[in-house]
Design goal:
mainly alpha, single chain, 0% strand
């Protein structure tokens, strides 16, 4: 996984509830991806990607598409 997908900007703090909410949201997203992958429900989509793309690159792209904002 690309470091940019998991890193927060240094020096940015947030309330504990917001931090827990963001962590839970991202955890749920990755867990859902993992379950779909393990059950084979992403196989067709992964096969339809260009040859140099993998399940890992799909996960990276998915995480890059997610925007976590501070309110």
């Amino acid at each position: 996984m690309k470091p940019s997908a998991t890193a927060r900007a240094p020096g940015i703090s947030m309330p504990p509830l917001q931090m827990a909410a963001q962590a839970t949201a991202l955890w749920s997203l990755v867990h859902g991806f993992a379950m779909l992958r393990l059950e084979g429900r992403l196989d067709g989509m992964i096969r339809s990607l260009p040859d140099d793309e993998t399940a890992d690159s799909l996960l990276d792209a998915m995480l890059s598409a997610i925007r976590v904002v501070d309110d």
